[in-house]
UniProtKB/TrEMBL annotation:
Name of the protein: L-fucose isomerase C-terminal domain-containing protein
BP-aspect Gene Ontology terms: fucose metabolic process
Pfam family, one: Fucose_iso_C
A GO term, aspect molecular function: L-fucose isomerase activity
SUPFAM superfamilies assigned: FucI/AraA C-terminal domain-like (SSF50443), FucI/AraA N-terminal and middle domains (SSF53743)
Phylogenetic classification of the source organism: Bacteria, Pseudomonadati, Pseudomonadota, Alphaproteobacteria, Rhodobacterales
GO cellular component terms, semicolon-separated: cytoplasm
InterPro entries on file: Fuc/Ara_isomerase_C, Fuc_isomerase_C, Fucose_isomerase_N/cen_sf
Record-annotated L-fucose isomerase C-terminal domain positions: 372-456
PANTHER family: FUCOSE ISOMERASE, L-FUCOSE ISOMERASE C-TERMINAL DOMAIN-CONTAINING PROTEIN
Keywords tagged on the record: Carbohydrate metabolism, Isomerase
Amino acid sequence: MAKIGILPLGRPTFDVPFAEEMLAGMLANLDASGHEIIGPRGLLFDADATLTAIGTLKAASPDRVLFLQVTFTDASMAVEAANAFPDTPLAIWAVPEPRLGGRLRLNAFCGLNLASHALGLNHRSFGWLYGPPDSAELAALLDGGRMAGRLDPVKTEARSAAADAAIARLDGRRIGRIGEHPIGFDTCAYDGPDLKSLTGITVDALSLEQLFDTARAADGTAVARVRDQAATLDGIEDVNQDELDKSLRLKVALDTIRADGGYDAFAIRCWPETFTEYGGAVCGPVAMLGEARVPCACEADVYGAVSQMMLQNAAEAPVFLVDLVDMDLGDDTGVVWHCGQAPISMRDPDIPAEATIHTNRKMPLLYEFPLKPGRVTFLRLSQAHGQVRLVISGGEMLKRDMAFTGTSGVVRFDRDAGRTLQDVIDSGLEHHMALAYGDHRDTLRAMAGALNIPVLEI
């Protein structure tokens, strides 16, 4: 019997009653395991509570520390715990949620994804489980099994005229990084000189205040034109009109900043300040810019913006920066999603696009529709495990009902869901990947050859 120290992680912006229900089931399974379970039995909603719990666990000298990833959280507390327990084995257990067409009530997989990447960067091994509260796989996890591996990329010598041209179009391009990436999002960190040396892309650091001030001062005629663009969305009159106006002004502001600075893409710290300090969502404007082939990455994810630029050059089509939020081994599918910012051309033509609000922050403008069926390619210029590589994947977007609110799609990857899930964790992959329709893997492999970086296919 081992002494298992638990840290139940959650955020109050998600469905707390549902999270507490999931946690109760997880605790019941742990209590039935035969191991000694120590640590808090309620959700830890903030850094102070989690740091206190880590200190208490450290005094108790557990044999293993288990993160209960009940909802999405950033990776900061996983790193804190890893540092507090340098010689203690670590494990993560994240719970799935049903695809009911409503909000992402937990988004726990994304928390697992962030923690996996952060622990990989910190050279910490860990066990992991993505399974329901009553999962029979828990026993193996508690016994030290289900360890994350490490996938190493391979060099490719492929070159092509199309790939060389796509890479050449990156040189001299400019990204406006608006605000800094949130704490605990190690997936969004970058080094400007390294990126410049690798791709020829320059990043300028801009402030959120500049974006907000430009939006507040936006010309009314320009805002009206953006309003006309959004008028095709069903329900546009039903959302809060003052907040809608603020959201549309962000589109005008981004257009203005882009014209003034000569930017080809943006990496924007979209939350929480666009809601808490400004009062409107940037998601709808990002969808509009994406359709116009001006990539925008959430959470100030510069390498996410570069991934979009690379895939857009290969596909010569709009791209969408997605989170992988669920994997269902029984259905052999995954769900890719982001709040509501897919380019409108990716909409399932049988389903109208609707205007909606952010599920956690309750402000417009977001797009809502399921992604259309068809062949898709995924790309990430990754820094996992401290090594630059190009991560490529492919699959088929299925014609399915909307899995979650916002813009989402159900995808069957080329490899089975279990293998893909294992690869995502073993690769230490960042939580954002660029998506485009069509099969562009040959061009992307050749682009990696032109950049002299290795390729990892998952």
